[in-house]
Amino acid sequence: MPLVPMRVLLDHAAEHGYGVGAFNVNNMEQIQAIMQAAAETESPVIVQASRGARSYTNDAYLRHLMLAAAELNPRIPIAMHQDHGNSPATCLSAVAQGFTSVMMDGSLTEDGKTPSSYEYNVRVTREVVKAAHAKGVTVEAELGCLGGIEDGHGAGLSAEAALAHLTDPAQAGQFVADTGCDALAVAIGTSHGAYKFKRKPTGDVLRMDVIEDIHRRLPDTHLVMHGSSSVPEELVAIINRFGGKMPETYGVPLAEIRRGIQHGVRKINVDTDNRLAMTGAIRKVLHENPGAFDPRDYLKPARAAMVDVVRERMVAFGQAGQAGGVPVVSLDEMARRYGGR
Ligand code: G3H
Ligand code: 13P
Ligand code: ZN
Question: Which of 37, 69, 91, 308 could form a disulfide with 85 if both were Cys (CB 3.0 to 4.6 A apart)?
Fold first, then answer.
């Protein structure tokens, strides 16, 4: 099956009440791990690459690896997504490279760090929507800025700034109407990386109520949760058992993600959990076999550890078993639908 527009996956997920994991990739083993888990669980899947991933891999390697993934898995609908595009130019270069979905993250200015104005966000997102939809490509936008609101914890914004930049449910409807985006990423107190919360998150720092409020107002809008790694204690423990030094930390519990899925969340971004799984497996091999030097000796267990995480997420999010039901829609057909033709 060719790569499909992400919108098709999200529409099917909404119709059937499940969520789709969007897993970040930087190399062949990660793509293989996602595809193995998807094939085993018969899951539609979103594979995503950040700007950093694109420059690490080189677009040509990434494009051909994804074509291989599609060729080897003809029954799995796969969307290829640009994660956190920082400008229209980044998003349009992804479209040119064959990505079937892009995120225009206009919640931050082009430096990817500074919170932007509403007007800037609408302007750059609209620009991307116009160009991407003409090619049938899906657009995710973000309103509000990610960042931990637990005191002194979480990457990115300070606690105060993160609280001030939670998505405003009252603004969400206007933003979706102003931009024409296909999916809306929301800021609810999560942050990227392993250090999200110092203790198991409660409703004051993981604001699932914001998602519920937005979904009540916009029941037909596909919502996206970023920073959704669960940071399993056992994966951190493996890293620490074999020479790592990670402090106690907590992520987003799967039960909270499932609650989000009941309230309109259709795309769930997971990167860190896979990084933890792979790193733990590599540390273990090298600790137990100090003489090992063939990369396959540690990359195979690393890949297998990632398959376990992705498989578990696919089952938890409800996408397992859904691959066969997703309609096959080409980019051209999507472009016609967007154009009303
Ligand atoms: O956006 C966050 C993802 O985990 C990607 O991270 O920018 O280090 O590739 P990255
Ligand atoms: P995690 O760091 O929680 O895996 O989040 C990844 C993400 O949101 C990518 O956009
Ligand atoms: Zn993100």
Answer: 91
